Amino acid sequence: MEKEKHILVVFPHPDDESFAVAGTLALHIQAGTPVTYMCLTLGEMGRNLGNPPFATRESLPTIRKQELLNAVKAVGIQDLRMMGLRDKTVEFEDDEKLTNMITEAIDELQPSLVITFYPGYSVHPDHEATGRAVVRAIARMSEDERPKLHCVAFSNNCLDELGNPDIVHDIRSVQDKKLAAMKAHRSQTEALLANWEEQVANKEVEFISQLMEERMWTYKF
After folding, report:
1. How many CA atoms within 13 Å lie on the side-chain side of 161?
2. What strand order describes the sheet that includes 79-85?
3. Which residues fall in a coiled-coil region (predicted)?
4. Which CATH number fits domain 7-218: 3.40.50.10320, 3.30.1490.100, 2.40.240.20, 3.40.50.10420?
5. Which of 124, 162, 169, 181 has the greatest number of beta carbons closer than 10 A?
6. Quick one: CA dihedral 146, 7, 137, 181, positive or negative?
7. Where are the domains of the chain?
8. At CA 31, angle to CA 28 and CA 37, rounded to 5?
């Protein structure tokens, strides 16, 4: 894993960071790299209210905010920025507003690496809009000033169209941090993680792979 100067992570929802890159970020943080996480919404329109339910539509934003704080603490993220956009409406935000939001953060932080979703291969409209905004912001920079852009993709066609990921991080040494971050998002993950020990014992490949490696693609401008 290459040593970075500063990493900027941009995702739309609380828990995106934990499922996608918590292990990767934990490894970078252990190496002394500062990480800034821009979370665009509080995920207040999330379908899950706990299992059994302990949240309501009214209380979910407050609950998910605290869950996010707990998750970034588990990973060790030093700089969390909650940007205040509304869940499930990121795709309807003005393109220039979103792009400028990312540009301002890049200008301030001067990251050597930015991580987001891969436009066209990240399924959810908020994911897609976020990825497009990050790509637009970096594309406007001169080539010699651009940070690297690593993108998370998980659509059914991503391997067929993008090929195998060129970035695969072995995160077994920090899988406890990733699992703690995932568990922190209790309202969304409690049912999924209720039997995680059994899943590991039964060698359920998809779940175990989440705790062993994280995959990304380098975006080519």
Report:
1. 11
2. 79-85, 35-41, 7-11, 113-117, 148-152, 213-218, 167-170
3. 179-206
4. 3.40.50.10320
5. 181
6. positive
7. 7-218
8. 35
- CA–CA gap between residue 122 and residue 141 (Å, rounded): 24
pLDDT in tens, the chain (221 residues): 999 999 999 999 999 999 999 999 999 999 999 999 999 999 999 888 888 887 888 999 999 999 999 999 999 999 999 999 999 999 999 999 999 999 999 999 999 999 999 999 999 999 999 999 999 999 999 999 999 999 999 999 999 999 999 999 999 999 999 999 999 999 999 877 877 667 666 656 566 677 789 999 999 99
pTM of the model: 0.94
Q: How far apart are CA 125 and CA 144, in angstroms?
A: 31
Q: What are the tokens at 92?
A: 């309807």
Length of the chain equals: 221
Beta bridge partners of 11: 39
* Distance from C-alpha of 99 to C-alpha of 208, rounded to nearest angstrom: 36
